[in-house]
Backbone:
């Protein structure tokens, strides 16, 4: 089957740019505030075939151009005949407005990743393709939304108008099943009922609409039409999405946990399309820090390599690096770590090889702002984010050095996979690790301080959580951090769900899964108790009124369907079910189900590369099976080999 | 008056990319075969105003975005009110498909070059504007073609169809004044009658056309409609152009010279629009080598700084440099020289300051391929062009070193204007000049050899012409070159009009204007004798049949309206009338009319910065006047000051 082809990375970069332009707020379009790369405008796509018989083929392009066969020019769209023997097929395509790409199909001649792509400046790479674009009727410049009808579950009169509730979050558009002729109405959207009813201040509103209006794709659960004619309107919602098969399942004896899994899944599916976004209403941008966490969730829910690759490529854009990713220094480094993590999941050496130069150029960009101790410092206009929290950001920050050490470690590992030289990075890493402990470890306080330059010796959870997770802390330091930082009430608590992810991950990693369980029930369970159908960007149990929807100074600024809200999927898969790769691409993997000490029973299926692992627990019996080799079940000190297709039953 | 604004250079880069995609050949679109830059996708345009009273303004954008006034967001298109005092107006605009740009107008608040533009990666520059886009109804993404009706001058039956002759070259489209209903025809275009009548092989053809067809803008003089219904068709042509005022005039006692001036003017006007193109039918691309010469013609015909700037910016694209300009090493260097030449003409320090970093990055790109002698060598895939001629291209070529020396000289001069440091380049230049003579000067042959590495000691006109024109040859060497190379029948003659320009320029520079005169009458006069209404890409008097239209292996591949065909304008203005700047921007200029020794009488007007110089000669009386100060009339050893507004009459 022929596939659409383009210069590799360009589909993702172009669509990523479009994605970062999608955001809308109260009638204003709000493009992301960073430098946006775009695809190449002009490319050559080519392959040589040695044909054993005469062959006819056709070429379709998006853009303008022509086909050259053995130096003879042909029009696109016409049937071209090749003689037996060597045939060099070159498709020249420029697209002044979008992605230049091509599709060709004959008997033998078929565009695909075995074609080459030339940027017209001497850089030739294997052509890019996507499983989403394999038909000549498609156009890789357009997203092929699948549509699903969502009926209205309740419809009631409010303030003289009508409120429609679709019972779930939708990304799509209203569709009127019955509409009074000649009437124009205002359609107010809401993630919450409160928002939809707030005609003045709701985030999305379509004025002067009628049954012919071409509504933009927007996120909503409620629609409110304030005009009295609304009574005569019947509406459904058309949910628009890119289907990504769900391969992870989980159910246990705790109904709340089951609902948390389901709502996490719903949340994550809604945030995943061509890319993994932060949220469906706000920002709809691709953020590296959010993606870093989402990749772990995605691993247990979808196991979809292309989704991860698309998101990584869109985030990274083109060389040269113009600024830190999303303007945030830490986000550049989290992206580098994400590349390594994606390799861990996929074992896809080809993709690693392709993206490696982009990793190096971004790493070098970071290293240009390091001092003689190897510490990364912020330059003017650099955003050293870490977290929304009261951190001591004077001078070089511990959190950034820990991230940098992790980055270097990741790059050293990637280099080893590809057989590339990375001595310089190893040397830097050794020195950096030494200096982190020398400058930031505070023996008296039993943890890493944020900054040594300020003299304040301020301890935060953030730096220490990263030090634990990214293995910068040694075992003794980890134990001390657990006691003196993570379990200390004297250290300011984490208040953002963004860092709550790292905290729960660290706690689970250090064997405190019961505590994690409690926190999941409390935090995510709390949202469910408030009627959440998707998980929110942030949840504060103290807020019960309209202030729940407020964020960043906007009454409806809070995203009620936010990808990082889905992190229970990761915690469940990684720790409760206990599945994780021990060699890239799950060539080898462990099943270390800590959940058996907490839950009475559970069963789950999780994707691994080319297969599925099934784990079920019904006290006292653990059953594990996998359709791929390489598995080991770990129970305490003991481990058991898992044979493909064979079910392992263990009594605990 | 408010102007449309954008990130500086982006309008030119984006439109230049579109221009390089315009080419068409026999139903195929043919984008240029080099790397194409495009504009930024996402920018911030801003200015602070201190208002003394309340002010209302509106913003229009091309793309998506919003307006932020003192941190408060507003919709584009709405009336925004500012209070007295400090007001920071920021327009955020992304354009996923084209040029992001904005227009704002209130009483005081008006977009213009006093606004700033941010690339969202920390590079802030003065906003770009164009005299062509000063109305809110315009869209800088579209070209505002002016249309002129061109009547058909003859219409005759040929081979059962009809041939329409418009008597002149047109860039535009057919317009049917009378058309038989329900009929579809084939419209064959031709620069020549032969081409239009060649239904199979003509360059442009519109099949299945009727009176509703939206014809593309194309170059033609003739149209042929082969169908018998053509008899019922009456057509005119709609010529589409960007008006650029002609400020240069010339007339003399030699009618042939007068016609050469007029046809040169016609040719050059047709090739000039947003940019100076090579030709109107083929390639319609922006070539640096062609532009280098065209800038000199433009100086005497239009004196239009913006046209030159647009062409320079479109050619150069964005940093980093991805490849040599138009893929040709010499064209990179000719571009650098063109920047200096444009400054010489305009004295526009602001533009020089803006473009200087692009000059340096391109120069550095060239210098990366130099050896220990300072010589530039070709790398694999580099195109060392010089000329279509039998040159000895082994190893480092003399012609390239001469160009490089000229480039370095130009950059040193530009740096001096801007008060920038350029010692390194001066040092390189000294060394390079020394080495050129040491390695390439052949005392025995009395000229520079093409290559010293081959051992062939091959002498060509090309290297020596550049050595003379770019002042690499000293006076003694120049004299020797004139005798032993330029006037030697043993050295292969120049065969391309591209290098004929350099040859005539060098001859004129060395006082051989009479010879130049003869060659102009012979070469350009020859084309007139063949019925040319515009000057051709190439002219060989020996060709008289259909082979005249052939080039590059294509029966109609020769461009019959080619910018470099207009070089008599330069030769006339520069040498016959003798006008040239001696300080940047014609702050000081000379009038050294060598034409008085050749022509009985002539009179001409030529543009200088902010003014016009009038020169007329009627044996024995020379009359010169200028409306700007700084002029000096030079006659042999004597010179006379020219006062603004005062006519200087001299008896010779």
Residues:
């Amino acid at each position: 089957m022929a596939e659409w082809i383009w210069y590799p990375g360009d589909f993702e970069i172009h669509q990523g740019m479009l994605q970062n332009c999608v955001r809308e707020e109260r009638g204003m379009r709000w493009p992301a505030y960073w430098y946006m790369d775009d695809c190449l405008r002009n490319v050559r796509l080519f392959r040589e075939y040695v044909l054993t018989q005469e062959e006819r083929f056709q070429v379709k392009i998006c853009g303008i151009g022509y086909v050259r066969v053995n130096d003879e020019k042909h029009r696109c769209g016409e049937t071209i005949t090749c003689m037996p023997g060597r045939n060099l097929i070159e498709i020249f395509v420029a697209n002044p407005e979008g992605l230049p790409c091509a599709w060709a199909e004959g008997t033998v001649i078929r565009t695909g990743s075995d074609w080459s792509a030339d940027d017209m400046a001497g850089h030739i790479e294997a052509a890019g393709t996507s499983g989403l674009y394999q038909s000549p009727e498609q156009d890789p410049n357009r997203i092929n939304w699948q549509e699903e009808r969502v009926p209205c579950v309740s419809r009631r009169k409010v303030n003289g108008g009508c409120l429609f509730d679709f019972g779930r979050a939708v990304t799509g558009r209203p569709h009127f099943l019955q509409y009074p002729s000649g009437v124009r109405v205002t359609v107010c959207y809401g993630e919450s009922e409160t928002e939809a009813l707030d005609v003045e201040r709701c985030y999305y509103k379509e004025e002067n609409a009628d049954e012919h209006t071409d509504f933009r794709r927007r996120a909503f659960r409620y629609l409110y039409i304030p005009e009295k004619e609304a009574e005569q309107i019947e509406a459904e919602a058309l949910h628009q999405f890119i289907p990504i098969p769900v391969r992870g399942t989980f159910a246990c004896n705790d109904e709340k946990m089951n609902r948390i899994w389901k709502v996490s899944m719903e949340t994550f599916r809604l945030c995943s399309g061509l890319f993994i976004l932060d949220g469906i209403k706000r920002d709809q941008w691709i953020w590296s820090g959010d993606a870093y966490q989402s990749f772990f969730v995605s691993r247990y829910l979808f196991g979809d390599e292309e989704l991860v690759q698309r998101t990584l490529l869109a985030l990274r854009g083109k060389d040269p690096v113009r600024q830190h990713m999303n303007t945030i220094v830490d986000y550049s480094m989290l992206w580098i770590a994400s590349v390594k993590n994606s390799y861990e999941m996929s074992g896809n050496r080809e993709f690693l090889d392709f993206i490696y130069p982009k990793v190096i150029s971004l790493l070098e960009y970071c290293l240009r702002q390091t001092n003689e101790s190897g510490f990364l410092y912020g330059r003017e206009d650099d955003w050293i984010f870490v977290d929304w929290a009261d951190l001591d950001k004077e001078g070089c920050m511990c959190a950034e050095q820990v991230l940098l050490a992790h980055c270097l470690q990741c790059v050293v590992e990637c280099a080893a996979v590809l057989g590339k030289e990375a001595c310089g990075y190893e040397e830097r890493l050794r020195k950096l690790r030494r200096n982190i402990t020398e400058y930031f470890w505070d023996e008296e306080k039993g943890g890493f301080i944020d900054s040594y330059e300020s003299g304040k010796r301020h301890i935060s959870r953030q730096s220490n959580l990263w030090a634990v997770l990214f293995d910068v802390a040694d075992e003794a330091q980890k134990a001390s951090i657990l006691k003196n930082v993570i379990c200390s009430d004297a250290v300011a608590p984490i208040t953002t769900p963004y860092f709550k992810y790292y905290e729960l991950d660290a706690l689970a990693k250090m064997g405190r899964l019961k505590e994690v369980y409690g926190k999941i029930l409390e935090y995510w369970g709390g949202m469910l108790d408030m009627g959440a159908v998707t998980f929110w960007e942030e949840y504060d149990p103290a807020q019960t009124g309209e202030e729940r929807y407020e964020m960043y100074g906007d009454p409806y600024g809070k995203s009620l369907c936010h990808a990082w809200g889905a992190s229970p999927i990761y915690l469940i898969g990684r720790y409760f079910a206990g599945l994780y790769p021990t060699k890239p691409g799950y060539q080898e993997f462990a099943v270390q189900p800590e959940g058996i000490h907490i839950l009475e029973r559970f069963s789950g299926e999780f994707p691994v590369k080319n297969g599925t692992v099934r784990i079920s627990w019904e006290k006292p019996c653990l059953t594990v099976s996998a359709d791929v080799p390489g598995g080991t079940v770990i129970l305490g000190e003991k481990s058991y080999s898992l044979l493909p297709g064979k079910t392992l039953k263990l009594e605990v």
